[in-house]
Predict the 3D structure of the following.
Amino acid sequence: MSKTIKTLEQLRVAAAQEESQYGKRKEYALRLNETLPLAWYDIDKHAPVADKVAVETERSAYVELLTQKGHSNPRQAWLKIRGYAREALAPKVEATAEGEGEATAEGEAPNPAKDRAAKWLETLAKVAKQVEEAEAVTFPALKALEHIRSAIAVMSGGIKG
């Protein structure tokens, strides 16, 4: 991440100003993964109101910037941001003949450490989603959720390649 761009607002503006540059949009999506609720890109009607408001507020701010800039399809640009965020937190796992998954790039040999990390990441995401969807949650569970989100952010950057 660039040392001169630090805040979410700065990343949003940079992504909107340089819409054609993949890197700025991806950087913005990664920061959204750190800032917004887990799996924010797939938020649904059953999500907590605060989570929906946070996502909608950010979406509105980004779309507003693109609209001011005269972008022809701000909604499509937001969908791209969501896609980059989804890709970052959900590494592609290909099924092998034995039914086990492996996170590999094309032409790359299987890596058992990456495979384990992908499975752990998937498990952490499931646990976090359960905590987020629970009607009543204890304070220790909320603190654990913060740590789970941090672990997901760290691991999603570490298993890509």
In short: Confidence is low (pLDDT under 50) at residues 92-105.
